[in-house]
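FAQ: What does the model actually see?

It sees only this:
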Amino acid sequence: MAGPQGRKPKIGKPRDAGKIIKRLLQYQSKYKFQLIVVAIAIIISALAGVAGIYFLKPIINVYIVPLIGQENPDLSGFVSTLVLMGAIYLAGVLATYLRSKLMVNISNNTLLRIRVDLFTHMESLPIRYFDTHTHGDLMSRYTNDIDSLREMISQSLPQLFSSLLTVAGVFIMMLALNPLLTVLVILMLVLMLNIIRVIGGKSGKYFQAQQKEIGKVNGYVEEMIEGQKVVKVFSHEEKALNNFDAINNDWAHASTNAHTFANILMPIMGNLSYVQYAITATIGAIMALNGMTDLGTIASFLQYTRSFSQPITQMSQQLNTVLAALAGAERIFEVLDEEPEVDNGYVELVRAKLNEKGEYVEVDSDSRHSPLLKREDSRTDKKDTVIWAWKHPHSDRTVTYTPVKGDVRFEDVTFCYNEGEVVLKNISLYAKPGQKIAFVGSTGAGKTTITNLINRFYDVPDGKIRFDGININKIKKADLRRSLSMVLQDTHLFTDTVMENIRYGKLDATDEEVIKAAKLSNAHSFIMHLPEGYNTIITADGANLSQGQRQLLAIARAAVADPPVLILDEATSSIDTRTEAFIEKGMDTLMEGRTVFVIAHRLSTVRNSNAIMVLEKGEIIERGDHDDLIAAKGKYYQLYTGMFELT
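And it is asked to produce this:
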């Protein structure tokens, strides 16, 4: 992740700012009425400011100048004019308040919809996306990028609109008051706009780079937090710090440039406005002395010049915020534009039972009132028994129901994650219902890839995988995964009770079913010793539990799902041999009657497998049961006797 120290960040503008703004407006389409009110409020606020300034001309020309030197001046007209002027400004203040209040509501609800869409779409993305993107970078879309959008929607865009109206209104009034002085202001405006274009353009590029670098920093920090034990075990704190320094320097480089250009713009524009004011005042005074204009006109015009340059300065300042927000919005829409996981499956998992004709028919699919997943086997009384079956519609509009048994077969499967890098080559194997199939081999041999293909985390480009005789590409992914359960080497527990973490395997499981699953995996004993038993809150991914206890909960989670196919990916790797022996009976009970795929480096756990597949460089080089492979004295024999390490 870290580039060479001092490397300049890759910078660039949003590819299509207009398209991004259009998409943002689509999110606000629900608030059309409120936006119309906001627009009206902005117009009232801007016009109030413009109209209020004009009152300086009659106040000076009609009241102040004529009344100078009078002993008893009549101030009634002067006071009424001031009251009218105050009422106009008050209307502008109220309109500004209304605009701000409405925009806070609109921005919060807009961002709410964006976050929902972002999370919803993220859940639809394939595993490949998460395998190729850092979690921290993805998290930055929810935090930094959305925060920048909040500022743009609630403040920057309304301010830009208000400033634009103010500039237009002030320009018209200046033109009406004194065209000659207006030409002078326009010349200064051209100079100011060129400065904004140059400096603002550079600032925008670096704001885009800053957003990207924030994602990299977040990703690296998250990675280091998760791997802090590994860092300390190998005493690599200095290396981690050096890598962080390199990434952090890239962020600092982009951020420094972005804010440098943004911060120097305001003083430059402010000083130019003062220069413009001084020049206008000097020329106006000369014109007034020569009778070319009056004092009230000069006073109003000078105030208009301040009101003319200030909005332009504000627009240049807000433009930087808008550019940063558009860069963030582009990153958000990049995720939303990612292709979701494609599912062309049409075979469904349904509940079925035999009718009077001895044919399977579909029954009520509401599983909330159903028992644990039942499969058809030799021990099951088929009469009036509801089982799970594959509902397979055919091209001739007929539908067949195939009982879920757990028969899995690979037929000449070849697979690669990246083009040209073959991970599995011509893999053929079968697992009959109730069999235990083990995969052993060195790291990178393709063991976990096989289980990824069974789950359809990745689709098979060449060859076929059949589940109960059905090509798994025809089975809907959600239904396929409901019929499978996995216990991974790296367990993940959610911030919730122990009960709910186990119930995650079957959301409609009763408390009794959860406790039964915990007993089956021998997790019940340690759970009852927790402060609140099954109601104990698990935090920080199970930091308050031992690694072995977390693994037992993962096994209990798989047990409550009661699937026909069980995948154990180093499921007991984090459990000591004493604990492993303690749960061995429970595991045997869990695996009984199921098709089980086991990935293990601890070869003692696969001795009782029906078949053991030895993989090397993506190919099955040996297969057979434990005794056959030991007798063959091949690679498995060498691994089992310790002649070679599984590395």
